[in-house]
Design a protein that fits this description.
Blueprint: H1 2-58, H2 61-68, H3 89-96, H4 110-114
Length: 127
């Protein structure tokens, strides 16, 4: 009876030890897989930065200027014949009303001419 009880306890203890070792091996395996994924993600991130840098260089003003000014380039600057001018009827009507007249055509008084806002305020640097 004692031998049977000892074998039972030994078998239970061995099974528990094997389960514990298996769980520890799985923990280390998951840790290694996480490190591999981390290094792969870092490689992908570096490659993404490299591609982003290449795209920004290709679209930069310097690159486009060098490409445009090459001798064998088919691109060229536009001349004065290809420029379109647009007429704004509202601006033409205001310019025809004359200087010193308000938007409704009436003459402005002296104080309204002095204190009128002619341009938008801009910030300047302090010397």
């Amino acid at each position: 009876m004692r031998l049977l009880k000892f074998l039972f306890i030994a078998v239970v203890f061995t099974v528990l030890a094997l389960v514990y070792i298996h769980l520890q091996v799985q923990i280390y395996d998951l840790g290694y897989k996480g490190e591999l994924k981390k290094t792969e993600l870092q490689k992908q991130n570096d490659f993404n930065g490299y591609l982003n840098d290449k795209i920004l260089r290709l679209t930069s003003a310097n690159h486009l200027g060098v490409k445009l000014l090459k001798d064998n380039s088919r691109m060229q600057f536009l001349d004065g014949h290809h420029i379109v001018t647009l007429q704004n009827p509202a601006l033409n009507a205001l310019s025809l009303q004359g200087k010193g007249k308000g938007p409704n055509g009436h003459r402005q008084n002296l104080l309204a001419g002095i204190f009128s806002l002619r341009s938008q305020a801009e910030a300047g640097s302090i010397k």
